[in-house]
Design goal:
The complex is a heterodimer. By secondary structure, chain A is α+β, with helices and mostly antiparallel strands. Helices cover about 40% and strands about 10% of the residues of chain A. In chain A, strands 1-2 form a two-stranded antiparallel ribbon. Chain A is flat and about 55 Å long. By secondary structure, chain B is an all-alpha fold. Classes of the chains: A alpha+beta, B mainly alpha. At the A-B interface, helix 1 and helix 2 of A face helix 6 of B.
Chain lengths: ~70, ~240
């Protein structure tokens, strides 16, 4: 039980848990789409693709930590 | 298989006895021991070229798959009345969804990395093929998962998908509007397929080793694309690289 918030499984507790664990952006609304000629893609999918490209480039460029010689 | 009660236990047999055994169990055991010696099956050292972040996405994909399976098992045990209503049920249901999201996120980056380093070189074609098949089966598993949500979203997806599936002819026996059939595919057949093929993929990685980077060329005009010219890493070098 979270101090000051009552039972986390109660109705109020649900709201508290929702605020703590929920997404930063409201994902429950209508999706937004980008139209570019014949290309149509949702903003959510575009964000995921851009994130994947960013992570891929970062994985190539960022140095990988190595142990110092002699360390076990 | 014949049973010889006078024969000594296998641990007491001499080496020539084991070598001449033609039984399928002995032949399978010898083949498995030859292909997957313990130090290759569970290595504690990796080649030095694996000290790069590009090599972490395979194991991240497997970690996500483990979470998908674990949360899916919890959902199967507790049932829809739990995951649709209770707070913990909704949370585990969301964990199931987001572990699928990270599974595909990391798998696609893993695919990009392996594509650009031509990971099928050095007799690793089966490793690449099992990865591709695992990816395709995973898409089917995720698709049937969206059909199993029991909400308007799943109804919309199924009614939109039926025309495409029917156009391929597969709709004759694979009916996306049949909730029971799609749920069984999602929780039984496709997970078994993904886990088996992913397991085979890992065994092939262990058998053939991680593909090394392209060798540096002085001319830099053409990278080495000859698959057989790429040496297989025989002995792991000193590295702290990830899987």
């Amino acid at each position: 039980m979270v101090p000051g918030f009552g039972d986390p499984l109660s109705y109020n507790g649900d709201m508290v848990l929702g605020a703590l664990l929920g997404a930063l952006i409201n994902l429950g609304g209508t999706g937004r789409y980008i139209h570019w000629g014949f290309i149509q893609i949702s903003v959510a999918n575009l964000v995921v693709i851009l994130l994947m490209i960013a992570v891929f480039i970062a994985a190539i460029l960022l140095p990988f930590p190595r142990r110092k010689r002699g360390d076990q | 298989m014949s049973i010889d009660t006078s024969a000594p236990p296998s641990s007491a047999r001499t080496e020539p006895d084991v070598q001449v055994s033609k039984q399928w169990t002995a032949r399978l055991r010898r083949s498995a021991e030859g292909a997957f010696p313990p130090d290759r099956l569970l290595p504690d050292r990796q080649p030095a070229y694996m000290a790069s972040w590009v090599y972490v996405f395979g194991v991240l994909t497997l970690t996500s798959l483990a979470w998908v399976i674990i949360t899916g098992c919890v959902l199967a045990i507790m049932g829809p009345s739990w995951w649709h209503v209770s707070s913990i049920g909704k949370f585990v249901n969301s964990l199931h969804l987001w572990s699928v999201e990270t599974f595909f996120f990391f798998m696609v980056i893993h695919l990009w990395g392996k594509f650009f380093m031509a990971a099928w070189r050095g007799n690793r074609r089966l490793t690449w093929a099992t990865g591709v098949i695992s990816f395709l089966v995973s898409i089917a598993a995720a698709f049937t998962g969206y059909l199993s949500q029991q909400n308007f979203d799943s109804q919309w997806i199924s009614t939109q998908a039926k025309d495409g599936i029917n156009a391929t002819g597969a709709g004759a026996f694979w009916n996306v509007l049949n909730f029971g059939q799609m749920l069984m595919w999602h929780i039984v057949l496709l997970p078994i397929g993904v886990v088996l093929i992913a397991g085979l993929h890992i065994l092939m990685v262990r058998r053939r080793g991680i593909v090394p980077p392209f060798p540096e060329t002085k001319s830099a005009s053409k990278p080495e694309m000859n698959a057989e010219a790429v040496p297989r890493p025989a002995a792991p070098a000193d590295a702290d690289g990830p899987e």
